[in-house]
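Moderator note: this is an archived Q&A kept for reference. The question asked for a predicted structure of one protein chain; the sequence and the answer are reproduced below.
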Amino acid sequence: SVACVWTAMTKEPTTVSSALRGILAVMILGAPTTLVAGLLARGSPDHAGAVVLGACAVSIGVGLVARAVARPLGPEQSRWLDSIDAATQSALQPEPDEAIRSALNALSRATSTPGAKAELWRTDPEQRLFVDIAGYLHVERASAPDRIYELAELEPERTVRAEVLQAIQVRRPDVRSSLAWFEAHRAFSATVVVDEQGPVGFILLPRGNRTAVMTLEEARAVRLLADRISALLAVSSALARSRERELAAVSRADRLDAERQRYENVFSSESGRHRAVAERAARVVRSTAYGSAARMAIEKLERLGRNNLPVALRVPAGVDAAGWAALVHLASPRQGAFMVVDGASGSEHDLSLWRDELRSPWRLADGGSLVVLDLPALPEEIQKHLFTSSALPVGKESKICPPGLIAAVRRPLEQLLSEGRLYEPLARWLKDGLVEIPSLGERPEDLRAIALDTLARAGLATRGAPLGIEDSALRLLMEHNWPGNDLELYSLLTRAAQLASGPALTFADLSKAGLVESSDPAHDTPLPTSSRRLRARGFVRK
């Protein structure tokens, strides 16, 4: 009756089963010892003292081995308790990942079923941790249903069991998805791991070949293990998050590096195309510039381009300003577009076009050069906007680097200012970069090269073979003043090439095209007779 009263009043249910196992162990070993000692003492009264002394010694030994003897007398879950206790001890290691690996490895020894292993799930980052048969820790990306945390919070020792879900699935349809998840993972129970901020994961025990239900001792032992792992999981999760951020940063850096390389290739390809456009525009000027006036102008333009300064070209009527402006662009460090705008065109007089973020010529020339032909023809508000955009520091308006401004004018800047056709701050800004482009009359040394280049292209276009020029026709060209400069020369030679019937342009062909021989001897320009001079310039035909 005393034992029954104690059993009913004890606050700790596990004490009853532990005491019962201890009493059984003592009875199993102590009863035979007492009976044997009593029989020996009765049969040999003379040695009763020695027998009693020996029985006491054996009783001490019985007390020492009683716990070990009581262990097999425990329920089926006793080896689970041993594994959980071993895992709890293993979780005391200072290194978080190693402590988790050792704890999971100890839990996995509770069952001998192949493939059944204890797992640790965490929420941030969402991962599943387990050990393989060789004892190595594995981490996989996985997420568990949030319903498991809610159900575990309502269960004793924060442990939700599969048999409980199976028992209530009829009355609680909302737990069926969680039960299906348990069955899919062949799980027996899940014990939630919490910290100050709430659930951070849970310990998932495998079902294996287990048939008995979970005891309170096991639930408490697993909860103790979960409390022990809580600090480890916090540190391990922080390290895992840091590792994920590092991997994400490395991945993002790799993607950005790939994008950078792709954009570099695109930019290199685009800059190559832009440079090809400028080189085509400058090819005629470079290939026909032999005189001192032309060479000095080219050197000055290239020097201004290398210094990345604004340039103003004073261009005579009929001279192609774009070809000379291309020399500045090619010498500059800018690799962007070579944008040419005709200021005399009415379509360029819309201020909203220049202020447009996508269609503005200044935006389209970003990173390159903006060539404005006949700058004074633009309205004053556009000239003011152009000056404001050009004078801004690097990075204010440009997405790459500010484009270089190359302006072409036909009159001196002072005269344009006095006529009110040029915005005064813009004129002062361009004044230091003013370059006088020589007229065709100021570069007679280049006339032969220009004529041969023009006729070669005209002949290839009309008859499929380059067209030459006779000395008499060349003398007639050199005697002319060329007030229309390059434009007049190109027009005349193109018209004469269409009229020519032989392989070389003749005096008669030029006369038919409208060029009249000058009667003023002052304009007569004798051809150089030295074959050495002609050969040095590359103009002697074979």
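Archived answer notes: DSSP finds 21 helices and 13 strands in the chain.
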